[in-house]
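DNA polymerase IV
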Amino acid sequence: MFASMPTPVNDPTQGFCRDCLGLQRAVKQRCEVCGSPRLARHAELYDLSLAHIDCDAFYAAVEKRDRPELRDRPVIIGGGKRGVVSTACYIARIRGVRSAMPMFKALEACPDAVVIKPDMEKYVAVGRQVRAMMQALTPLVEPISIDEAFLDLAGTQKLHGRPPALVLADFARRVEREVGITVSVGLSYCKFLAKVASDMAKPRGFSVIGDAEALSFLADKPVSLIWGVGKAFEATLAEGGIRTIGQLQTMERNELLRRYGTMGDRLHRLSRGQDERQVHPEHDAKSVSAETTFDKDLATFDDLVPILRALSEQVSARLKKSGIAGRTVVLKLKSADFRIKTRNRQLADATRLADRIFATGLELLRRETDGTRYRLLGIGVSDLSDDGRADPPDLVDVQSRKRALAEGAVDQLRAKFGGKAVETGYTFGRGSRGRLPRPDEE
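Structure:
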């Protein structure tokens, strides 16, 4: 009954307190109710409904939640000295640690950091908990990754009895209280600026970018702020004398199209804060993969094969669990000098079998074992579809049916007795090379 009675809203320039949600009667430095300095104010505060929510240093935050003694310590989540940084807490970031940084460089920058191997199963569980809380606010939740999502709360004010800004502030409080991690919220009128806003005041941020200020807000920002402008394209724009978004705002669309093709249209629109993309609640996966970074560089075919087999089984297990299959097998290799190779092969039919994924990956791997030393190996499948028509009987390879049945029997035994109950000859007795590695990236 009370949800249908909207809460009176004050002047948006006076705003509300993010800690107690108390509405403010004047513009002051601290909340009139609880004294907190964390106040939300903006001329369009109660008119905006599109948000981007991002968990703060997610993996590290979960580990600090579970190990309170690490609260004031720099924490890095990654794959040991040979791996890369998956994420780092804000204490480590102050010291210069960044995501995707080689671990040895991260430890040079922050030698007293506590390094923890990723526990993806735990992180996925926490991510799902937060996502369920998002979906209680609105059905329009579009996950971007395990720890971030877009939300569209348009039309939900009657349901919640308060405007989206207050709903989101309350959500952030509840996540902190019930889940034990923090989130940052970006509120705007479009996806592009909502995402920009969520990055503005991390951690525990709550930032608003309104329609009226979009042009002036963007004008002095670097072109790299625009989605799709990476280092290479940023350099290309710099060659043309374009370094700020304000410079793009002065250029005609046709001129940008002439110079940069279809990317020119994106530059024209986003530089002006024009983004018509909607929030789509279902976001289909484009690929399923697993990869691992080695403790030491490997070069020989014999050393790489058992790892490829273990990763293929990991990918197969995910496909079967999700009821999907993939038609293109993709092999990924990273050499000792950090150069990345990807090789792919399209199959006649989609597959979810470890046997087919591994056999295809094996052919691709054989061509790349030319003495090059590798620090990372990955395997995956793309061109995903429902598994209803996956792996039909092969009239040429008559043994494929038997191998598929054998794999099904192995899956049942592992489900009952654990993943190590049955091993193939590729991985059996191979020590660390034969164990299913945790992927550095999902």
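The chain has three domains: 1-212, 215-271, 287-434.
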